[in-house]
Amino acid sequence: MSMTTVPTDTAITRLLEQFRAGTPAALARAVSIVENHRPGFEQILAAQHALVGRARRIGLTGPPGAGKSTLTTRLARIYREQGLRVGIVAVDPTSPFTGGALLGDRIRMEDIALDPGVFIRSMATRGSLGGLATATREVCDVLDGFGMDVILIETVGVGQSELDVARAADSTLVVLVPESGDSIQTLKAGVMEIADVFTVNKADRPGADRLRHDIELMLGLRAGSGKPLRRREGANVPADTSAETAGTWVPPVLQTVAAENQGITQIIEALDRHFRHLEQSGELRLRRRMRLREQVMEIVEQQIRQRLWRDGATLAWLDAQLDRLEDGSLVPFTVADMLRAQSGSLLTGAHYTPVTP
Amino acid sequence: MSMTTVPTDTAITRLLEQFRAGTPAALARAVSIVENHRPGFEQILAAQHALVGRARRIGLTGPPGAGKSTLTTRLARIYREQGLRVGIVAVDPTSPFTGGALLGDRIRMEDIALDPGVFIRSMATRGSLGGLATATREVCDVLDGFGMDVILIETVGVGQSELDVARAADSTLVVLVPESGDSIQTLKAGVMEIADVFTVNKADRPGADRLRHDIELMLGLRAGSGKPLRRREGANVPADTSAETAGTWVPPVLQTVAAENQGITQIIEALDRHFRHLEQSGELRLRRRMRLREQVMEIVEQQIRQRLWRDGATLAWLDAQLDRLEDGSLVPFTVADMLRAQSGSLLTGAHYTPVTP
Description:
The structure is a homodimer of 357-residue chains. With 357 residues, chain A is α/β, with parallel strands linked by helices. Chain A has a domain at 51-284: Rossmann fold. The first copy, chain A, is built from 16 helices and seven strands. Chain A has helices at 9-20, 24-35, 41-49, 68-81, 99-108, 110-113, 132-146, 161-166, 189-194, 208-224, 264-281, 283-309, 312-320, 322-326, 332-341, 344-348; strands at residues 56-62, 86-92, 118-124, 150-156, 171-176, 197-200, 253-255. Chain A has a seven-stranded parallel β-sheet, sandwiched between helices. In chain A, strand 5 (171-176), helix 9 (189-194) and strand 6 form a beta-alpha-beta unit. Chain A is globular. At the A-B interface, helix 3, helix 8, helix 9, helix 12 and helix 14 of A face helix 3, helix 8, helix 9, helix 12 and helix 13 of B.
């Protein structure tokens, strides 16, 4: 009784076989299907589910022009030298007015893209049936399931998105530049809350020490207040797991010149220390459980949207109410109630069908 | 059986009485309740429903620094001189890294904020229970119901948001500046599709004529191709109303120096012409019917999110599945199906209760 038209179970089963065999082309196809929620995406994600959790997920965010792509490339090279396989997810929730610049960044990254141990995927704004944060987490799951050891999630700092995307990461590196602002006051609260490591990039420019000092001051003041230092945005911690939270982490503030390859190993070390902290404090498990929880909630919402708004009868019924909505004899809230009341089986019916392995 | 805890019917009823009497404080309170979806917001919106549709809604979008706030202020002044009441909704889906600059814009706008015939509301990023586009349309409905004649919706061009927000407007003015990009190629398709009028602002700077020429060329090429010139993004036109679409509109490309008050009356004239075109072609009614349709869909989704994710028993059940999700014995898609299957009455139950007038 699935609503999803899986092209053929066999096609997805074969893709998953090639995927498990480590075929790069199968990874690229699987990522495309998942990213765009094409038929079979649920089966691909479900097949990864038990494998997910091996990769370290590192988010990089910061204002446009902070050098995030260069830094991502530098980090990827070091992880490759360590023999690790690297996935890069570049999230571009960018303005339609500034599309050009970011394309340039992508092109600069292409020299590491030739390395077979690196997989790069650029993701742009999503349609209404799924959010960018969801898509990012799902693509990370596919890369994780494929066997990537480190996943770098780069997102440009515009809007709510970078906060959402940070929730897909285990550790978040916030990249600032001396010219980011005259004052640290321009950093809204959200950024302080998601940052696990700060770096002042382009630190050979004037103002780098001042910015580092300002960030440290802000962090120090918060640490000295006796309150828990930071709480992840949107963290609705289930009561039965809150006892696992232990220890505090004061985000280190580093300086880098990514273009000159300066300070990169310090970033790697700080991220390693943060990851050990996450493991030892139990917060890693907590964050990953929270991700699972959010994942189910997002899937429920997506299933409902898909089942309602791709149903011809529901849409035809809605269109038939437009005259009465237009003349004011019905209000939208009443129509919404009516629509839900008559959609019982659409709302509750089974949606997901596993493929036969 | 409403899930919404309305503080008291009486409080909302009294607020609506003051609102109908034209009390500015009641407008401000109503907007705040609606913007934040506080208890009673549905009753306030429902009370506006039959009144909505009198105001002209004009969207302004463009890259940061294009001078949108100045232009908005200039347009508002002229509409005030025409004796019209003006609502301004400034949508800031901005980066946490660049909060400072926009605050400055808001302050510059404050001289017209002292005019009792002007109501200004700044809106920032919304939480997960409702999107920014929805909130914008809802706030516009309140301003419309209050009796504003013109509503200016200003949104900074970052991400998908400005395309969403444009759907809340009848006419969209796209504001560019000579330095927007070396070439019109940087304008992604979405911008061309939402623009009803273009202006090259800061037109006293070098490159203004070139930019204007490039935009006109692009529009002309598209017009000459024989294909329908433009189709509003996300326009799922119901089959029974598509016959109403008639005529084409070629967006004029104007030049302004908003800071020097140059070219503003030409913008007003172009927007007036576009509005007449919308009325005469039947597209105004079509756009507004599409907004009603989208509104119901958004309300359905919001009701479902609220009813599921604020239900203690549902969340407790979900938390109880985390162990099996974590050990891989259950996949999120199955848990989502289970959750929906057992939530029948939550999903279909009545949500909205009208207040007794």
